[in-house]
Amino acid sequence: LPDAFTLVVLTVWAALRFDTTLVVVHDLVMGVLAVVFTLTGHGPFAVIADDATRAMVVQLYVGLIAVVGTALALGRDERVILMRRLQEHAATMVREAGHVMTLAGASRQLYAAADVRTELCRLARHVSGADLVYLLEPDTRGSLTTTATDGTEASPVTFRLQGEASLTVNAF
After folding, report:
1. Which pTM value belongs to this model?
2. Cβ neighbours of 79 (radius 10 Å)
3. Which long-range contacts (CB under 8 A, 24 or more apart) does 157-160 make?
4. 61 contacts 53 by C-beta, under 8 angstroms
């Protein structure tokens, strides 16, 4: 029977080391080997004299190997999946913390800015990665007019709020 316990230890080691598919193959091979050795009169169960008892012991042994190996392998696989998810969530949290820090810094810069409109455009361009930012505000003539820009020294832009609709007017 000491050889039987060695196979159980080997099954536990394989289950904790390899994925479920390999462990199921391992369990199958170990079960077949236990049955073949027992049928040929070798192996740890050959010492059992009664054929019915020996057959029952081999069946229980093969079942034990299958249950222990598969359960441990499935638990290991689940831990691996959960660890990957945890790592993905941690990476997301790090990215989001970076965004929060960027926005907090932008908020402090806006608070201290001499020209809030220009600083808002500069920060919006920085945060978004845009090449150009316009700040449009309604004027007294019923139009949206450029009040600040960043990324260019372009001339002011005006969009009429009444009349032909544009994407900019619709967004406003």
Report:
1. 0.53
2. 10
3. none
4. no
